[in-house]
Specification:
This protein has 104 residues and is mainly alpha-helical. The protein is 69% helix and 8% strand. The protein contains four helices and four strands; from the N terminus they run βαββαβαα. The protein has a two-stranded antiparallel ribbon with strand order 1-4.
Length: 104
């Protein structure tokens, strides 16, 4: 399980990134609709669900941690393929994933 207890600085950064993500419109993806096998709007929604659960509950169960870890590969590919605000948006999701999984 990923647990946020005792990670004050990480939590503050995560909360700030989450607020930015919630306030930003979904970015224009240009011609890139998917990377690997996942459509980018679905990837955004899946990772946002993990982040929201983590912030609400303070931890993620093993299945959610595994899902976030799988999403990390797709997020990296998305950031590499996208430009502009889309790259920023998916980069923010990647950073939140790294913070939650402890790779900060």
């Amino acid at each position: 399980m990923s647990d946020r207890r005792g990670r004050g600085g990480v939590l503050t950064e995560l909360e700030l990134l989450w607020a930015e993500h919630l306030s930003a419109p979904f970015p224009d993806l240009g011609s890139v609709g998917r990377v690997t096998d996942t459509e980018l709007p679905y990837l955004d929604a899946a990772v946002a669900g993990f982040v929201s659960s983590y912030l609400a509950d303070g931890l993620l169960d093993a299945a959610a941690v595994a899902g976030m870890d799988r999403s990390r590969h797709e997020l990296r590919a998305a950031v590499a393929a996208l430009r502009g605000e889309a790259a920023v948006s998916f980069g923010r999701l990647l950073r939140m994933t790294d913070l939650i999984l402890g790779d900060d």
